[in-house]
Amino acid sequence: MAFLFKSPPHPLSSPHSQRKEHHHIGTMATNLKIRTAEEAVARIAYLSSDVIVSVQPAQSIESEFSSHLHRYAGRKDKSLVAAGESGVPEIQTIRHNADPLLSVFTPVRNGRLVSVTTTSSILVSSVPHLYRLANLPVVIHVSLQPAHYPDYSSITSIRNSGFTFLQSETLQEAQDIALTAHALAIKSGKGVIHFFDAGSSAQDNHIEFEDVEVVKDILNLDVVKAFQRSRIGGTSIYADDGRIASITEAPTLPITMEGVETASAVPVDQIAAEAPSKASSVGSSGRESSTDSNTKASVSSATTVDSATVRAVTSDDVYNFVSGIWAQLKQSVGRQYTPFEYSGPANAENALFIFGSDVGAFAQAIDAAKSNEIFAKAGVVTARLYRPWLGSKLIETIPNSIKRIAVLEQIRRKTTKWGPLLLDLLTTLKAGPGGGVETIVGHQLGYIAPETVRQALRGILQNLKSEKPIQNLEVGNADGPTESLDAYSLSQPKVETAYMKILDQIFGKRLYLANALHSQNAGISTTIASNPEFGFGSLLARKEHRQRFIAEVEQAKKSMEFITEAPKSWLSKWSPSAGEEIADEIIARLQTDGSPLSRDLLSKQGLFRKESSWLVGSDAWAYDLGNSGVHHVIASGENVNMLIIDSTPYSERAAADAERRKKDIGLYSMNYGNTYVASVAVYSSYTQVLQAMIEADQFNGPSVIVAYLPYFKENDSPLTTLQETKKAVDLGYWPLYRWNPDNEDRGEPNFSLDSERIKNELKDFLARDNHLTQLMKKHPEFSSNLSEDYGSEVRALQKRQAKDAYSQMLEGILGAPLTILFASDNGNAETLSKRLGNRGRARGLKTLVMAMEDYPIEDLPNEENVVILTSTAGQGEFPQNGHSFWNAIKDNTELDLASVNFSIFALGDSHYWPRKEDKHYYNKPGKDLDRVMGNLGGKRLADIGLGDDQDPDGFQTGYQNWEPLIWQALGVDKVEGLPEEPPPITNEDIKLASNYLRGTIQEGLDDPSTGAISAPDQQLTKFHGTYMQDDRDLRDERKAQGLEPAYSFMIRCRLPGGVATPKQWIQMDDVSNAFGNETMKLTTRQTFQFHGVVKGKLKKAMQGINKSLMTTIAACGDVNRNVMCSSLPTASEYHREVYACSQKISDHLLPSTTAYHEIWLKDENDKKIQVAGDAVQDFEPLYGPTYLPRKFKITIAIPPHNDTDVYAHDVGLIAIKGKDGHLVGFNLLAGGGMGVTHNNKKTYPRTGSMFGFVSTKQVHIACEKVMLVQRDHGDRKNRKHARLKYTIDDMGIDVFRGKVEELWGQKFEKARPFKFQSNIDTFGWQKDEHGLNHFTFFIENGRIEDTADFPMKTGLREIAKVMKGEFRLTGNQHLIASNITDEQLPQIKDMMAKYKLDNVQFSGLRLSSSACVAFPTCGLAMAESERYLPELITKLEGVIEENGMRQDSIVMRMTGCPNGCARPWLAEVAFVGKAYGAYNMYLGGGYHGQRLNKLYRSSIKEEEILEIMKPLLKRYSQEREEGEHFGDFCIRIGMIKETTEGKTFHDDVAEEESDEE
Ligand code: SF4
């Protein structure tokens, strides 16, 4: 254990040695431990608190205290007093501008010891809180700021707040006084502020750790416990509850110095009840209870102890307590403290009373002074106990010989003529008894550089001793040293600039930001500059400024001072509301004119524009202290726009202390009536933000936009912000809406809801004035959402109801109960559980089957028999629907399962983690659960069963051994006459029963009770081009709220060859805005894909697409999909010929069911297109009623471009040009395909096999015949083995081709020669043979969206409005603006530049990359893809640049799962998702898509990816041969073996599985 110094103080060797000793400069050993005052204080605060409010510049920037606090808490160090089980105090991090002292009220009122570590920057603005906290035992440790030259006015200006103030000067004192502060707060029941200038002790020798035993003694843990048992009343932090610290004493016993007696705090009304005659005087004096008043508020007592007295704590009491504490301290550690400290000769005549830094430096200089120096032998006085001000103690402290005192106050913000300390001294020494002090002279202490200390002392003493001393003389440099950076300036998270950028985009030069952070506000601190009052003031000033400017312009119009004529004529066209163009023209004319008058006007040129004035604030405005400013602005009725950014993450909203609840500024402003209000979230709806800002600008009056931008740390990635935003908006915590009071005049509702769910408070507001009814009328689709709005805690209830309903159902059934719980991601565990339930029931058991998450865990100890089946997700985690159960049980020590029999069956894949160190993930959830339930006393019905995908029959192998053991254990293994089980329903059954793809889709769409459709219909809608998905970012949260997943639909268009007209582009854009999530994905198969279309909008979206003459039929499903074609910008004529073939093939293979039109395009009123329902029996000449076994894909490539990856599809057609330059036919490849299942070696990617040449005329027939042979011979039993690639490999290429030729009646000709050069796009401008222009845009991963940085979607739409050519979507998810005439070229180029769409200056790596959608919409995704690949590339670009490879193209692809939508197996380097954050890495693919790659590493995370890629890229740059591509290089240097064909994909992988031992 570490000890405090026990040695007595060193003998005094010179008058000021005590002060120097405390600094220990240069005299102590160096192996001591504590280095800074903040560390010393943090340690004491940690030991002495339940809760520490750590005030920090930003969440991600530690303060000098917090870095220590977080370290101790991270190590789980125990505090001496923390009452919680762990003994670890709670550290609450609060940004310094977020009203930090609000956080103190709740815990302290609940009997928790609270301390605050902060800089002085928060004190003045916290005054209202300080008055209320003064009578609570709170300790605030304050490090004075700015660091090198602190301003003590932050202390003097709060000196009357009722707090006790203690000051420390040295490192050692910081430790001792911190401890004093805590002990004093506990004993006196009053708040204590301990302040110090950390800079003063920066050079002190390091000190020992505190002695914990001493701390314990001094704190007095009995008193601590008594406080912790108490609960203090008072619920409001907005009104003074009249509480004062008071003391109960027995009149016979005086208060003792040991502080045995302690004060407690009671509300004044209690005292009032007890002593009515004194009530009013005590109540009113409550706040001053710590000033030097000798009024003892003794009141006669009426409590149970007859003789006890309750009275307010007085300054004498404080003195007695603190003296007691210091006496104890002296005894334990030998150091002595008094309320005032004097150092210097006992016979000194002159003294300095210093209230500032540098006390040690002054003392040293005096000691070192020669005897003839004017300041020699001066004394130095400082206040240790600054408040209460104990004048009598000061008189006791200073020697009688002192005649003159110079008061040095380091106060930078001076508000009164005389310094507060000077007044204290004057009152004490002039008015008080005794003392021969004749002269007291105030000085303003500025910054004293070390080399100027002597000079300063000389000046002070000369003044002091002069006949007529000057009061308020300035000493030192008043401005202080120049500080390079203010750590406490407001920091903004990177993402926060998003809203600023949008403001800038909309208003451009018209934008006037009144309080922009980081702007120069003439020396005003950023904290003040960001206040609403400050900004508002500056806006009003700006307004006046403009009025004056208007007058100046009027003058100028008549002036003769211009040199040229133009300014005057333009000025005469100007009016205060003139448009941008006129302002631009005037400015241009003034610039050419150059006269002094012009220059003068130009210096205010911003005022020519009708400005859009904005005040931008943070959520700090929503707390008490900022809110009044907001109120002020709204109440003014001025035409001012406020943008208030709220950054509390959704996930943290519940954790927030109730006292810290922010005001709902939106709601508050709506209540006001005269204000335009909008609630927006840029990461949810960009267009809504635009709309709100434009409307706010147009509104003539105050506008308030509350804007959501959640983050945990300022450096969070945009993805975190996005996910938090989505949750908040989806669940109604942050509804999107607009409220426009002007709408009423137009006969429109004031309120428009732009998201779907709202919180109760908003609903109540709307309900009051009929707005809700209006809203429901306008948007009937919202009604079901609005009835289950945010905030209803229904989940627990639901669980209970579900379980009870089950139990009821089982009543009356005999037999033993068996509860079967499952956790399942892919359905296997669920299916097994349900089957087990049926089988149990057949055996006479009372079986109950539930998902683990639906089970109320409190029932578990009452179960008789429980079996749990769980599969394994991610890195050995429970599947999603097992999480809550596992979290509830894993650390539970209270559940008693002694009377429960249980067994677990786990499902997993023993090869999923090939590395030895990861092996334990195999079936980990099941094994963990087995262990925990055993530990809780459960008895095993049977040992855990392990299902392994690698066993001969997969998990069934293990299962078949386990299930009989359960029946045995329950005594039902010998039951006879069990019924036969029906076979499971397959996709084939669904297709067959669907009546040509109708199923019950229509009924499902009409069912408003759910956002979903039935499982069989989910299979069928794929044939119609749409999949049901749910937003995986929201799954957990919605589950927790008792809501079904956020279901929505993905719609994929069918767009042969990827060609769309500009008009179609706009129509697609409309569809995405009106029905989808405001974005479009250009897919790897050259078509548009929409996400986030909710069921209620699905039909409308389909109709929108069909109106634009596109369709979605057969865009997904077991049919021929969209037919692709190279986009070929350089040869338009030839492209047209080939593209025509893609259309022909597409049309030829289209299914002919009429179900599509019937379901999607039927309009209830339009009988004409209604197909006569059942009367029509559909007929599918090509497909038949069960369509194909699996999807079927056709693509066309035009050499030398393999941009469509011709080897990757079921049929790949390579266009062959004749000698005349026209298309003659195609080489046909068959059997390509990408989809794979991890660790299932029976699945593999495959490149197409060459069948031979076929003519243009016959190509669609040849394709048809290949498809028909697959239709009849493909595997319809196992969907994982159903693609054409397996049929061909199973039959043999020759046999398959033979069957095709037989059906076709023709033979393939010998393949014609061709040559590919690459499979990537050529970005930028190109000209074709007719001189038309084509521009290939870089669309990262095909995502068309607007962001604050890059409004790409808007830009493309604007271009589409004027463009006369066509758009071509490429197979690499990029876009070409095609066929642009030279005439239109400048216009298009201008627009591209305006929207930054002309930028193709990206690294070769980025340009050659592509990623699939994956999270959040794809249900199969195991890892992020589209949202992550760009980040990964950024991390690699450094190495790329360093090694001079910026231009080099390396094909890198990523997918979220092995389904392989972005064709990863053909990339030179690929990453395929394995678990969240983990990827399999593949190397060695062919540069132009001709060769498959091979597994290099399994399940690696970013760190390992970078570790492999960085040196490899470097090596490639150094060792490659001329023209050698990256994939070929990896093979040549032996990193990876070449994959020669699909069947050998799994052979010779670099990372063999390690043997199990
Ligand atoms: S590759 Fe997998 S994760 Fe990516 S979009 Fe396709 S199915 Fe989804």
From TrEMBL:
It is found in: Cytoplasm. One of its GO terms (molecular function) is sulfite reductase (ferredoxin) activity. GO terms for biological process: cysteine biosynthetic process; sulfate assimilation. Gene3D superfamilies: 3.40.50.360, 3.40.50.920, 3.40.50.970, Sulfite Reductase Hemoprotein, domain 1. Residues 1-22, 277-301 are annotated as: Disordered. Pathway: Sulfur metabolism; hydrogen sulfide biosynthesis; hydrogen sulfide from sulfite (NADPH route): step 1/1. Its EC number is 1.8.1.2. Residues 818-967 form the Flavodoxin-like domain. Its main location: cytoplasm. The keyword Cytoplasm applies. Its cofactor is siroheme; [4Fe-4S] cluster. Keywords: 4Fe-4S, Amino-acid biosynthesis, Cysteine biosynthesis, Cytoplasm, Heme, Iron, Iron-sulfur, Metal-binding, NADP, Oxidoreductase. Alpha(2)-beta(2). The alpha component is a flavoprotein, the beta component is a hemoprotein. Catalyzes the reduction of sulfite to sulfide, one of several activities required for the biosynthesis of L-cysteine from sulfate. HAMAP family: CysI. Belongs to the nitrite and sulfite reductase 4Fe-4S domain family. This is Sulfite reductase [NADPH] subunit beta. It comes from Hyphodiscus hymeniophilus.
